[in-house]
Amino acid sequence: MPQWHFRKRPHRVRVAGTGEGVLRAVSQVTWSEVPLFSSLLRVASFGRVRRDPDRPVLEEFLAGGFVELSRTGRELVMAAVSGGEPFPEDEGGARLEWFLAYAEPRSTKVAFSFRYADGVLSTETRVFGADESARRRFRGYWALIRLPAGLVRREILHAVRRRLET
User: What distance in Å separates the CA atoms of residue 84 and residue 102, rounded to the nearest whole number?
Assistant: First the structure.
């Protein structure tokens, strides 16, 4: 996402593997491998939401409205938009073009990526608010989640490294 209003700087971890193998490991990380993330979500839901410890984390993101926006041999990008607008089918890059152009009033769009290059796996999040109203609403949310989100990203990166080492 070339333009954004909020950004979680990249977190990095050194890992050994091929780009495709590393991204496969990212996709396979389960809730049992990221207990802090699972616990934070359970607390945020006041204990109502429990996650299947064997379910991949990214699979749950997909079930919750995120889409795989792009995947290459070195990068995986997932995205979501507020406002309930469904993503189009991904035919010839239409989904990416739609996401980049999407800017309905009061909407927010988010993209996060995992990128592997030169032995380093990194993750970054970018958020775009279509107007001042959307940015103001998101700013309060961002203030609450920014620090825990950074801890979660590090936890996922270390889970990927553990997976690749075993």
Answer: 12
